[in-house]
């Protein structure tokens, strides 16, 4: 798996409430090893802001990878600051079983 950064960008919840968020575009296969790699860099990402993970270029998302990612997010206390893009309905539902809200409608309006 590879991770590309589209850098920090401004995101806005409400007028005048801009803050920095990190966007990471994932590619390749997302498995347990990839989740562990991503988990190790979580503390340095989106410090105080939000993290957007884009799975639209991932060729295969393994259920075990999502389980491991949910555990990493929980351990880093970031599950409420991470937004997922490009996941199938199955994967959104699976993350919900693990306590991570990955509903697409939860996304923010980006500038």
Structure commentary:
The protein is of the alpha/beta class. The chain has helices spanning 32-41, 63-75, 89-97, and strands at residues 2-12, 18-30, 50-61, 82-85, 109-110. Strands 4-3-2-1-5 form a five-stranded mixed β-sheet, covered by helices on one side. The radius of gyration is 13 Å and the shape is globular.
Using brief descriptors, characterize the structure shown.
29% helix; 3 helices; globular; Transcription Regulator spoIIAA; 111 residues; alpha/beta
Quick structural gist:
Helices cover 29% and strands 38% of the residues. It has helices at residues 32-41, 63-75, 89-97, and strands spanning 2-12, 18-30, 50-61, 82-85, 109-110. The chain has a five-stranded mixed sheet, covered by helices on one side.
Q: What is the CATH architecture annotation? A: 2-Layer Sandwich
Element string (H = helix, E = strand) = EEHEHEHE
- The secondary structure category is alpha/beta
Strand content: 35-45%
Arithmetic mean of pLDDT: 75
**Major sheet attributes:** 5 strands, mixed
Main β-sheet, spatial strand arrangement: 4-3-2-1-5
Low-confidence segments: 7-18, 107-111
CATH superfamily: STAS domain
Percent range of helical residues: 25-40%
Report the span from N to C terminus. 28 Å
How many β-strand stretches?
5
How do the strands and helices of this protein lay out in sequence?
Layout: E1 2-12, E2 18-30, H1 32-41, E3 50-61, H2 63-75, E4 82-85, H3 89-97, E5 109-110
Parallel strand pairs: 2-3, 3-4
Antiparallel strand pairs: 1-2, 1-5
């Amino acid at each position: 798996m590879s991770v590309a950064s589209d850098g920090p960008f401004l995101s806005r919840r409400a007028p005048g409430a801009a803050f920095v968020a990190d966007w990471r575009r994932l590619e390749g296969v997302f498995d347990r090893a990839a989740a562990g790699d991503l988990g190790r860099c979580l503390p340095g990402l989106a410090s105080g802001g939000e993290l957007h993970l884009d799975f639209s270029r991932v060729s295969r998302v393994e259920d075990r990878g999502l389980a491991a990612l949910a555990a990493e997010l929980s351990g880093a206390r970031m599950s409420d600051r991470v937004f997922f893009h490009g996941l199938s309905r199955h994967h959104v539902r699976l993350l919900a079983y693990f306590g991570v809200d990955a509903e697409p409608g939860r996304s923010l309006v980006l500038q």
